[in-house]
Every structure is written in C-alpha cells, then in structure tokens.
C-alpha cells in the first residue's frame, strides 16, 4: 500500500515535527521547503524519507538546534562558514545566499563550510543559484564512507556528490546535473531496504568483488564508483576540495551518520556561484545553451530510443507531475513518519 500527500501537507508536517523537537519555526520552515523540493524533483532519498533519521539525530543530541554560525574567513569572492553543527540544510542555505551575493557583486562566489551535517540533494542549492541567473556548482563530502579506493577494500571515501546548474532564462528550468560519484547513492540503498526490494547488480560489491544485491547486507560491502577508477578519482578530488580545504572530516575521521546519531560529523560542503555577465554575458550564455540543447534533443537517436534528454529534464518532469498529483509515500515510510510524529509529540501525517 502507498499513500500520496501534497507538497503543502509534506511541508507542514516536516515543519510541525521539527518545531515539536525544539527547532525555531523559521529554521524549520526553511528546511521543510528544501526537503519538499527534493521530493518534488524526484530525489526521494533526500526528502521526507530522511525525516525519521534527522529527528533521531536531533533527539540524541547530534544536531545543534540553536547554532551560532560564523564566518571563519571572508573575502570579496570567497568565504568559509563554520556551521556550529546545525542542520545541514540551514548551513547550505546560508552558504548559497552568500555565494549568490558575492557572485552578483564580484563575478564569483565560492563558499565552503565545516562543522555541517547532511544537507540533502545538491540540486536544491544549485537550483537556487540558477534561479538567481547564475551558474552553480555544489561539492560535498558524503556523510558516511561506503566506497573504497579503486582496487582496495578499506572504505575511506563516500558518495561525494557533485551538482552543476546552468540557467536557461527566466521561467525555464536550468540544465542541472546532480549525481553521486558512485553508481547509486547510499540513500537509494536505504530505500530499497525499507521497501523490501533487491538492489540491481552493479550498485554494490562485497569485499571479494562479488555483486551484492541484498540491501540489508550493505554493511558487508561497498558502493561501486561510476566509471571505475574515474569515479574514484572524482570522489577523491571532491573530498579534497569540499573536505580538506574547508577543515572538514575526510577519510578515517569521517563519522557514519547512519550508525551514529550523537557524534559531531563535521561535514564539509562547497557551493560556487558564477556570474555570466563577468564572462561572455548572461544573454549569450542563455542563447548558446538553448541552441546546443535544442541540437542535442533534435539529434538522431539509436533504434528503440524515444527521446534524448539533457540533465534536469527528469527533475522538471517530476516537479510538474508531483505538484499536480502529489508526492508518493510508500507504506513503510508512512509508518515511520507516524512514529516520528509521536516522537515529536505532534499530530500525525494525514494521507
């Protein structure tokens, strides 16, 4: 059995839970809006699905509900924010605002953070940058190590996602790439486990290199990098840029927030905003990007292929569909959300 709720229902419920757990209402609303944005975009592993886990972490003291975020370094085009162990969404929302502000004034805004937490889908933040008419890039150290260096078995790297957005003009969705550096994000593994489904071959391998398809045994294996050694290399570089450069946790120092709800994770993330007007100009970018995308979508297709898509098409279609028809909530998740409502002492989710 599955349930369907509206975006408004989801946002109100998430806000209600966080306020019930002691979070300031203004902060709860920002986080709820971002989480629902993830659900509308089809990033189900980063939306309301995460509410039970986030709530547990709050209850067990792993999240600071009254942070004093501060800039450790602040220059015209670059800054480093100390998140004071706040909810990752709040930290990255502030970082994104600051990056946009710097880019509009100085051409580029590069803002990193340390002492953060899991912040959901990177597309949420690069989309905010695109909405401001700027090019966006997001880099993050994942919140648990589930990948080994290429050829090894010690898990010292995470899914380390990257997101890039390019604006396509007012009222049009951006070209938006949001991907993990592993074949599947670990959130998808957790969703498979919750729904009682097997993982496809190719997502994970055990420590002998054999395919692992049971998500309940994921602790016995490791995620597979995209493009073999290339995905490993990309994950490592993101760890250096979003982790080491920001003074955040990497490698053996990384805390697995799936297994530990109390420890400070010191998650590192970076958001970059670039102002096209300081280069070839926004008008030229939009015109040329539109021409290129049109050429790509109109190009010849392989037999059996009905459509050539560009990054962001799936997000736009999902947003349109779910805005109209609602957000699907599997039965196991619905039950977990009702338990979360009890934990927070608030009214249950209707649906």
Automatic annotation (TrEMBL):
Superkingdom of origin organism: Bacteria
InterPro entries: Mal/L-sulf/L-lact_DH-like_ah, Mal/L-sulf/L-lact_DH-like_NADP, Mal/L-sulfo/L-lacto_DH-like_sf, Malate/L-lactate_DH-like
Gene Ontology MF term list: oxidoreductase activity
A Pfam family: Ldh_2
Annotated keywords: Oxidoreductase
Entry-linked PANTHER family: MALATE DEHYDROGENASE, OXIDOREDUCTASE-RELATED
Annotated family: Belongs to the LDH2/MDH2 oxidoreductase family.
Name under which the protein is recorded: Malate/lactate/ureidoglycolate dehydrogenase, LDH2 family
Organism (species): Polynucleobacter kasalickyi
């Amino acid at each position: 059995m599955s349930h369907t709720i509206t975006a408004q229902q989801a946002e109100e419920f998430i806000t209600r839970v966080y306020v019930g757990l002691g979070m300031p209402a203004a902060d709860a609303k920002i986080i709820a809006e971002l989480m629902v944005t993830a659900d509308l975009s089809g990033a189900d592993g980063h939306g309301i699905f995460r509410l039970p886990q986030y709530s547990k972490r709050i209850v067990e003291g792993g999240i600071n509900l009254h942070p004093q975020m501060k800039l450790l370094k602040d220059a015209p085009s670059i800054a480093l924010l100390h998140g004071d162990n706040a909810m990752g969404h709040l930290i990255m929302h502030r970082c994104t605002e600051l990056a946009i502000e710097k880019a509009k004034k100085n051409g580029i805004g590069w803002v990193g953070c340390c002492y953060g937490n899991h912040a959901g889908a990177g597309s949420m933040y690069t989309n905010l940058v695109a909405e401001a008419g700027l090019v966006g890039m997001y880099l993050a150290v994942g919140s648990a190590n589930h990948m080994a260096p290429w050829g090894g078995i010690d898990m010292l790297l995470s899914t380390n996602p990257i997101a890039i957005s390019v604006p396509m003009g007012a009222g049009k969705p951006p070209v938006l790439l949001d991907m993990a550096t592993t074949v599947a994000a670990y959130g998808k593994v957790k969703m498979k486990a919750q729904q009682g489904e097997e993982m496809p071959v190719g997502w994970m391998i055990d420590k002998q290199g054999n395919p692992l398809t049971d998500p309940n045994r994921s602790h016995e294996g490791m995620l597979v990098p995209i493009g073999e050694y290339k995905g490993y290399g990309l994950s490592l570089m993101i760890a250096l840029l979003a982790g080491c450069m920001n003074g955040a946790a990497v490698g053996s120092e990384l805390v697995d927030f799936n297994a530990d709800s109390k420890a400070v994770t010191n998650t590192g993330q970076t958001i970059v905003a670039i102002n096209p007007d300081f280069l070839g100009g926004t008008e030229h970018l939009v015109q040329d990007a539109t021409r290129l995308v049109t050429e790509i979508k109109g190009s010849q297709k392989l037999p059996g292929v009905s459509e050539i898509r560009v990054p962001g098409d799936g997000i736009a279609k999902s947003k349109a569909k779910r805005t109209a028809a609602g957000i699907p909530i599997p039965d196991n998740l619905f039950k977990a959300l009702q338990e979360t409502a009890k934990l927070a002492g608030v009214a249950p989710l209707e649906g």
